[in-house]
Amino acid sequence: MSVSDPGKQTQKEPLEELNETIRKMEENHSNPPVLKGSLIPPDSPHKSPIGLILLADPKNPKPIRALIKKISGTDFKLTLPFKLSKILYRLSFLNREVKRLKKQVMVDEMTDMYNFRFFRKQLKTEIARSARTGSPCSLIIFDIDYFKRINDTHGHLVGDRVLKETAKRILRSIRVIDYAVRYGGEEFAVILPSTGLVEAISIAERIRRAISDHPFRFSGCSPISLTMSGGVAEFSDLFYTTMGTLIEAADKALYQAKNQGRNRIGYFKKDLEKITEVGVRPEERKFLLKSEDEEAADSPHK
């Protein structure tokens, strides 16, 4: 019968000691290895690890060398493992760079909205889906009213801040399924999947009010009252059946709103007149088809 020596500590397994050392480094906010993985034999019934893979920043291999020396007691030179570490570290960097460039290609740098390149691609996708499923898809194009006056009065830096704040308000006003885009300059667009004309007009009005009802306040300048006009069109069998005709219709509806006094949402009444058997309630139809005189009375630019 053997009696263990109470003064002698149990020798830790190398892997256990290595894991404990890494944990202590992480707790001390030191520079631990970038990646740690287990080596498990493919024929092991218990999937128990027999070793570790440690990958470090190739520009700073000291932590991993120190760990190996601590466990093995040998200060040997890293050759193939270090080269593997370098390759995987660079692959990780390239992966992050690809994601960054992909975002840069599709996102407007100033507003953090999608850009025109994304707009063309996504609108084409939504139109194809609508054509395949028979569900509608609507488009809104917005333009800030008298934006040049803001640049002339307050300067281009304030103008940039206005564009950023406008983008934020648009993004807060849309649904999860919608896509907001900086269309160009002071123009914005919103793609509305699975959305008919009546609902699209309602969403456009909500966005318009988010701009007009709350003055823009920035440090160093007086409050800026801003308005925005929009044009709405729907892609479906009832209305416009190509991407080109849909964009053209929304653009013309926008300029109709501009010509009628700005700070309003434009749409073609002939399109609404086609909606007679698609579930529009009478009160909605009466509101949307109100006379030009009533619209002019509602406008602050009468």
Widest sheet: strand ordering: 4-5-3-6-7
Elements, N to C (H/E) = HEEHHHEHHEEHEHEHHH
How many β-strands, per DSSP?
A: 7
* Uncertain regions spanning at least 5 consecutive residues: 1-9, 37-44, 74-80, 291-302
How many distinct folded domains? 2
Characterize the biggest β-sheet: 5 strands, mixed
Describe the structure.
The protein folds into 2 domains: 14-38 and 48-106, no CATH class; 116-298, Alpha-Beta Plaits, CATH 3.30.70.270. The chain starts with 13 loop residues before the first helix and ends with a helix. The strands form 2 sheets. The chain has a 5-stranded mixed β-sheet, with helices on both faces. Strands 1-2 form a two-stranded antiparallel ribbon. Helices cover 49% and strands 14% of the residues. A hairpin with a 2-residue loop joins strand 4 (179-184) and strand 5. With 302 residues, the chain is an alpha+beta fold. Helix 1 (14-27) runs antiparallel to helix 2 (62-72) and helix 5 packs across helix 6.
Question: What's the layout of helices and strands?
Answer:
Layout: H1 14-27, E1 35-39, E2 51-55, H2 62-72, H3 80-106, H4 116-133, E3 137-144, H5 147-154, H6 156-173, E4 179-184, E5 187-193, H7 197-212, E6 228-235, H8 243-259, E7 265-266, H9 269-273, H10 282-288, H11 292-298
Parallel strand pairs: 6-7
Antiparallel strand pairs: 1-2, 3-5, 3-6, 4-5
